[in-house]
């Protein structure tokens, strides 16, 4: 047991430690309040990464929202109340395959369609790529938590004369809520940290996007960009630290939210 | 018995579950506004019979139901998908382990009212109070109606499930061993409630304890390996059983 705790806690501490050590010199207020500024060759990149922070949130939050809406609909529909198990298990298998597809493939796929319909890399295409990436993750997590809802609870609801839809939306969803929330957050975490799917689809820009058709930077692409710039490594680590903090805040918030909703759960 | 009116009647009811033939040619009559006990050893199909009355069997996979189930003279097996909720609304269910809905105590009772489009807030409050009074829960919970139902004791949860069932004004109460998970005092409360409620509702009680059936039943149905061995008034059934298997069961020779 001690070994497993050491491995989990140790790797967490090492990652945080390394990121902070390497990025500390660049962790200034201007990192999160300014967009990148041009500097003469030979000097480190100037300004901050506000464009990437905003870009990441603008990409991942709506994508997660879309994916969650689609995911919850699919997940509720996958239950035996609606579909024959043979059909739903086939769909589950396909979702698992989709989950396993590397994100760069989603990126290339969206890029192809984007070029085909004559669009250029932009916030909206990046959002779509992330949505596609997140749907299988979110759906399968929600599906598993909904499967755990005891049959007696559904029977209770049905016996009061509620329809399948009412039971799914008013009872099953409530009981499975902590699991549903966990699914959404897993999707958000994946979406906000993924670089490959937005590399081609969202593009890169030093400015904060003003419309959904502008291309935009995100934290993962910004980290890549900074790290490959001469003398930009410390800023890259600072950006990585900010990304870590965002993910951490999201998971803590979700824990608090889950606790609020858990009190109604029937064991 | 000829003067009685029957609430539920089955004709040649056969139920297959996966590959098991669970109920075999079941012909029974359940008198209205009385308490009917369905007894028999575990695994004999009691619960299956009960859940076929409100078509709850169908939410499970691979169930095949044949025959007729007449409720107030109408074969409910003819009803199509969208009409099934109406059948179920007629029949409240009390399961073995209470499953309150994942919401507050008050909302558990109000849920049924809301889905049947009672929007009037005052009316809902009144019904909630009335139903909780009926099951003797009001004084215990009136100060914490907004607490989650999951915080109640198991016995209280079972009474809450009874309250939410009668809130939608069913005609029948289907009870599937409702006292088997409860402590003796809570079990007694439920039993007393069922005796009180049978004046207004037709109560079908599945039980595997003979003593309970003797205490409360007006009418008894004895199932054995999915077949009806004997049915009749409690008086006849317990004091003058006709079938040798019934006699054996009553004397504890088979269980």
Set out the fold topology.
The complex is a heterodimer of chains A (267) and B (255).
Chain A: H1 2-23, H2 29-33, E1 36-37, E2 46-47, H3 50-77, H4 85-100, H5 103-116, H6 123-147, H7 151-159, H8 164-175, H9 177-193, H10 196-199, H11 219-227, H12 233-262
Antiparallel strand pairs in A: 1-2
Helix pairs in contact in A: 1-12, 3-6, 3-9, 3-11, 4-6, 5-6, 6-9, 7-8, 9-12, 11-12
Chain B: E1 6-17, E2 20-31, E3 35-39, H1 46-53, E4 63-71, E5 74-75, H2 84-89, E6 91-94, H3 105-115, H4 121-134, H5 138-141, H6 154-167, E7 172-176, H7 184-197, E8 202-206, H8 210-216, E9 219-224, E10 227-233, H9 234-239, H10 244-250
Parallel strand pairs in B: 3-8, 3-9, 6-7, 7-8
Antiparallel strand pairs in B: 1-2, 1-4, 4-5, 9-10
Helix pairs in contact in B: 3-4, 3-6, 4-6
What would your notes on this structure say?
The complex is a heterodimer of chains A (267) and B (255). By secondary structure, chain A is an all-alpha fold. Chain A has one domain: MetI-like (MetI-like fold), CATH 1.10.3720. Chain A has helices spanning 2-23, 29-33, 50-77, 85-100, 103-116, 123-147, 151-159, 164-175, 177-193, 196-199, 219-227, 233-262, and strands spanning 36-37, 46-47. The model of chain A has no long low-confidence stretch (mean pLDDT 91). Chain B is α/β, with parallel strands linked by helices. In chain B, the strands form two sheets. A six-stranded mixed β-sheet of chain B has the order 6-7-8-3-9-10, with helices on both faces. Chain B has a four-stranded antiparallel β-sheet with strand order 2-1-4-5, with helices on one face. In chain B, a hairpin with a 2-residue loop joins strand 1 and strand 2. Chain B is globular and about 55 Å long. The interface between A and B is medium-sized, with 28 and 36 residues.
């Amino acid at each position: 047991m001690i070994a497993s705790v050491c491995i989990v806690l140790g790797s967490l501490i090492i990652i945080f430690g390394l990121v902070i050590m390497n990025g500390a010199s660049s962790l200034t207020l201007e990192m999160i309040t300014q967009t990148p500024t041009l500097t003469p060759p030979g000097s480190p990149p100037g300004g901050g990464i506000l464009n990437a922070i905003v870009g990441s949130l603008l990409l991942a939050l709506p994508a997660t929202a879309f994916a969650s809406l689609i995911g919850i609909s699919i997940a509720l529909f996958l239950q035996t109340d609606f579909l024959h198990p043979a059909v739903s298990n086939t769909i589950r298998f396909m979702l698992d395959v989709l989950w396993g597809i590397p994100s760069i493939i989603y990126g290339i796929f969206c890029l192809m369609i984007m070029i085909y319909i004559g669009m250029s890399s932009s916030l909206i295409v990046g959002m779509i790529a992330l949505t596609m990436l997140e749907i299988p993750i979110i759906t399968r997590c929600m599906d598993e938590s909904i499967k755990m809802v005891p049959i007696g609870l559904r029977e209770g609801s049905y016996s009061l004369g509620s329809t399948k839809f009412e039971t799914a939306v008013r009872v099953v969803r409530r009981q499975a809520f902590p699991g549903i929330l966990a699914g959404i957050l897993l999707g958000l975490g994946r979406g906000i940290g993924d670089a490959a799917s937005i590399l081609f689809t969202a593009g890169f820009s030093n400015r904060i996007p003003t419309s959904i058709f502008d291309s935009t930077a995100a934290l993962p692409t910004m980290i890549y960009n900074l790290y490959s710039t001469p003398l930009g490594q410390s800023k890259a680590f600072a950006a990585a630290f900010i990304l870590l903090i965002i993910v951490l805040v999201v998971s803590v918030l979700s824990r608090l939210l889950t606790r609020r909703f858990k009190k109604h759960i029937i064991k | 018995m000829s003067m009685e009116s029957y609430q539920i009647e089955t004709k040649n009811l056969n139920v297959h579950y996966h590959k098991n033939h669970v109920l075999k040619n079941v012909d029974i009559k359940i008198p209205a506004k009385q308490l009917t006990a369905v007894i028999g050893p575990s695994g004999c199909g009691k619960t299956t019979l009960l859940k076929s009355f409100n078509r709850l069997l169908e939410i499970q996979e691979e169930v095949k139901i044949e025959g007729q189930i007449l409720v107030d003279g109408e074969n409910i097996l003819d009803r199509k998908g969208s009409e099934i909720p109406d059948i179920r609304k007629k029949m409240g269910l009390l399961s073995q382990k209470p499953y309150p809905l994942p919401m507050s105590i008050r909302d558990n009772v109000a849920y049924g009212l809301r889905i049947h489009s009672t929007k009037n807030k005052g009316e809902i409050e009144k019904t909630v109070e009335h139903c909780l009074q009926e099951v003797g829960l009001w004084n215990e919970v009136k100060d914490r109606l907004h607490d989650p139902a999951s915080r109640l004791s198991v016995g209280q949860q079972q009474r809450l499930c009874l309250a939410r069932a009668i809130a939608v004004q069913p005609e029948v109460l289907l009870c599937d061993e409702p006292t088997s998970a409860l402590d003796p005092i809570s079990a007694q409360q439920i039993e007393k409630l069922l005796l009180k409620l049978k004046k207004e509702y037709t109560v079908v009680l599945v039980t595997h304890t003979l003593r309970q059936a003797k205490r409360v039943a007006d009418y008894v149905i004895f199932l054995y390996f999915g077949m009806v061995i004997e049915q009749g008034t409690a008086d006849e059934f317990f004091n003058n059983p006709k079938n040798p298997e019934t006699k054996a069961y009553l004397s504890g020779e088979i269980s």
